[in-house]
Structure formats: C-alpha cells, structure tokens
C-alpha cells in the first residue's frame, strides 16, 4: 500500500468573493462590440432538456485581454501561462477619482512597495456601481506612464472594476490612445476588465483567479473572476 497523502498546509481560505458580473441577455458591452444575446435553444417542455444559445463577443462582461487584442503578433489567450491568471493580488483603492481622469503613479504610491513579479494589481475605482448606466462609460483609467512603471516593477496582470484600463470614447480612439493596454499587453501581460465587488475583499493579499475560457486563438475571453480571502 502506497503512502497516503498528508494534510494540505499553508494559508487557510476564509471566504471566496465573486468578482464577476452575471452574463445575461442585453448586458453592457464596450461601444461597438457584439451585443450579448441569450435565448433558449431547447427546453425541458419541448425537448426534454435545457440548452441555451449564447451569442457574445470575446470581450463581454468580466473578461481578460490577451496581447493579441492589440498586437497582431501578440500571444493568444489560450497560449498564455496560467500563472498570469492565478496569483496573489494587491488591491489599490483609487476610489474618488473624477470621471474620465487618469489613475497616476502617485495614486498607486500606497501599494507600490508591494508590487513585483508574480503579483496582480487590482484597481478599485468603485465604478462598478455604475454598471448598466451611461455613467459607466465615464470611468477613470490607468495613465500610460503608470502602466509602464507597473510593467517595469514586474507586474504582468492588471485588473479593474471598469469598462477599460484606457479611457472609453464611444465614437473613436481616446486622446491618449491605448497606452495602458499597449504597455501591459506589450510586456506579455494581461488586462482584466469589468470586475466588481472589490470592496468585499478583506485580505491584504488575496489569491485571485481570473482563468479565462480556453478560446482557441482568441484575443481574450470571459472569466469567472474570484478572490480567495486567505489568512
């Protein structure tokens, strides 16, 4: 008889926080992206079993951007290291920023000494409170030079509770371009958008999972983002 496995050791999980928006018919999407449409394909009454027909873009709801989202030769979501999607996280409280204003390196100063390789950064803007309203498009965004400094510090996973890490301009490209996306994705990292409920995280350094669907050759994919409060 082989040796029996011993008990798992390490920090205990005190709770699991769901950081994802529900995927539902007609949910908000980035301007110009495919609308989300969810309809019954079969029903128990007619066919004996339930199946949904789901029509949505790769960037719908809570999702991950892969480098290929902006870079033609960038890595696709199914080819990225899984370590990018499961990592201890630092939550930066940047609530209180005015609409359409940049999150600067100075805003990140309180957590700067905790950033480094293997750490994910989650920007808590509080903008998920506006989900489903016109105000959601007027979110704060990550300044390009701040994104470059994050990359220089070794951070390769950046998430936030807003529609985009760059400014959202409904009818065109933002004045600053897509500097934050290009900095993070250009370094082989990933961006996680449309998180929610970051205020519910209690750990100073939660373990966060943003594992995406394994869409072959895709620019990104929806995720069921969760934080494990550990201690």
Task: Write a brief structural summary.
It is globular and about 60 Å long. Helices cover 9% and strands 24% of the residues. It has helices at residues 44-47, 144-152, 179-186; strands spanning 13-18, 37-42, 51-55, 63-65, 86-93, 102-103, 120-124, 141-142, 157-160, 190-193, 207-209, 220-222, 226-230.
Can you put this structure into words, describing what you see?
The structure is a single chain. With 231 residues, this protein is mainly beta. Helix content is 9%, strand content 24%. The chain is built from 3 helices and 13 strands; from the N terminus they run E-E-H-E-E-E-E-E-E-H-E-H-E-E-E-E. The strands form 3 sheets. Strands 1-13-11-5-7-9-10-4-12 form a 9-stranded mixed beta sheet, covered by helices on one side. Strand 9, helix 3 (179-186) and strand 10 form a beta-alpha-beta unit. Helix 2 runs parallel beside helix 3 (179-186). It is globular, with a radius of gyration of 19 Å.
